[in-house]
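# nightly structure sweep
# worker-07 picked up a monomer target from the shared queue
# config: single-sequence mode, recycle default, output format = structure tokens
# input follows
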Amino acid sequence: MQKEKRIYWIVTIIAMALIVLPSYFVPREYLVEAIRRMGFPAYFGLELDICKIIGAVIILIPFIPSMFKEWAYVAFGILLLSASLGHWLADGPSKGIAPLVPFAILCVSYYYFRKLNYAATGRL
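# output follows
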């Protein structure tokens, strides 16, 4: 059980860092241009940043009910798959693969989240 918790927290922190931090370390001009190239309005980047922070807080704070965490996982999954499709269509296949890396790590995090939640409650 302790091993699974450790794996869960390490993988979850890595996933949240890969999802949230690029908004702050990638040059803003590049992000604005990518959003424009995909046909989204200019304010969409700010909206994504706010939603990413809220989702990361929900997933990382332990005492938030698991139902909210499930929805945050779903939202991040949709976000990353949509980003992959959008980059694929706007920039080509090489750019469309990048969002699938945090998606795969998010899936591992979700697997351990469910495993730990099942062990604690006895329900899936």
